[in-house]
Amino acid sequence: MSKQTLSFQAEVAQLLHLVTHSLYSNKEIFLRELISNASDACDKLRYEALGNAALWEDQPNLEVRVAFDKDGKTLTITDNGIGLSQQEAIDNLGTIAKSGTRDFVSKLEASQKADAKEQGALIGQFGVGFYSGFIVADKITVESRRAGLKADEGVRWISGGTGEFEVESITRDKRGTSVILHLRDDALEYASAWRLKSIIGKYSDHISLPILMQKEEWDAEKKENVVRDEWETVNKASALWSRPKKDITAEQYTDFYKQISYDSEAPLAWSHNKVEGSTEYTQLLYIPAKAPQDLWNRDKKAGLKLYVKRVFIMDDAEQFLPLYLRFVRGVVDSNDLPLNVSRELLQNDAEVEAMRSALTRRVLDMLARLAKDEPEKYATFWKEFGSVVKEGVGEDAGNRDRILPLLRFASTHEDGNEPKVALADYVARMKEGQAKIYYVIADSVEAARGSPYIEKLRERGIEVLLMADRVDEWVMGQVREFEGKSFKDVARGDLELGALAGAADEAAKDEAVKESKGLLKRVKDALGDRVAEVRVSTRLTDTPACVVLAEHDLGAQMRRILEASGQAPPPGKPTLELNVAHPLVQRLDATAAGTDFDELALLLYDQARLAESGSVANPGEFVRRLNRLLGQLMR
What we know:
This protein has 635 residues and is of the alpha+beta class. The chain is built from 21 helices and 22 strands.
């Protein structure tokens, strides 16, 4: 094929401009990305060669070579991996077939004022690492031949990082790819063996195949280092997780995490273990310090990197951890799975299921240790990932007893709104005779703290857990008790004070019910089918009325979730409770039957609905009714 000139995809042209100008402060990450791409190409060859041994040709040993020419101002990264065909070079280097490209571009634009580490992390997160070469190069030449193709079916791709690129056929005897960077004048520091070795040691030491560079020796006559023809391995060329733990420093664990996660922050914790027995594998698991922006996207692939006997198989192997642990990063390396394992096979493999159970317990145990030994770090973790961990209460019944002690809540025992209280802390502070763990759910912790449903409990010094996560209602519907104490939603059914309510309380309630029978009937008649019944409240002290749900009715949170998904929530009628000692209720009782009574009863009902769900069925009518009553008071 003769040389042809093609245009970049529009997003690529924009991306190249941003990469060149936005990541200037963290230039060295380009080498990390290009070596990572070379390693992936070798892994891909190893995988494809399982079904076609001819792809190995005459090069059975996989490697990456890094060479520089100081005089020619070039830096070349060469691998003998799978290589590229001509069409693959056009498709892979001229376009970005990734739905997140626009998102990447917008984030990169937004990060121009961020620190260098954050900027550099974006490159790897979105899989566009090849283009980072333009940070240091004003032109890139790629020469490649795909394994299995003839020598004269090689391809050369050239671009100056502007709007176009050139492609032509070449003859290339060896399979694989060479990426030749034509360095800018301000990037000549990367034509230095010492500089390159330091970057490789920092970012790519764990790569499981050798990274080679030509040896340098001191030439006394020239009084400078001279490059020799002999090549040497400059990385450890062994997977970090395969080394003994005692030989790995905390810094190395952290650097490896940053490499595989593209996170600029150090992890909160990690667990590195080799499991032997009927199933043999090594796992290295990390707990990040910060949640990704797509944490709530349950459809996004997330999981561990899977290796089989240190051969890379796949990213995001979600079969090894449940969905509520989708934030965990790391590696699992099996000695028993077949090298040609697929995602479909993983879904129906008993060995994988055993590994999943063990890895899940390992993560939960790691979190339990973090909560016990480093509570400040655990508070950081819970702030970022607590809402996701709560999903496990409903999704993983087998580990529910391990998950419940990990939960943290805000509470009336604490002045602040941060979730600091564990269930064990609550149980330890329970009043004598208290049989229930009381909680209330609202749209915010502030709203929960001011909820009318907890007035009587707060008056008696009984602690209430304050919940406001959007999953809380669903979560609490899945759990019945903790350490023998059952949970009680204070906005549902009876308050169930049990032994906490004395004989005097029961007598006062009976007397109030007896004296208020007429009022309760009149209010029920005024409200009609809006409520199931009207009764005297035992939970209110300062508020005139509240609506109480039946034990199995959907609350405001679940109703909103269903409505947002286009589903109609099932109908339900709440119970209206009246605080018969409140002046407004006493004024209502003294009001003769008629329009004024009905208006005031409806106003109290709407106020109670506002406190319960934050909305009323007819806001306009509520405002008009309130204005009419206010007008009467002003006469």
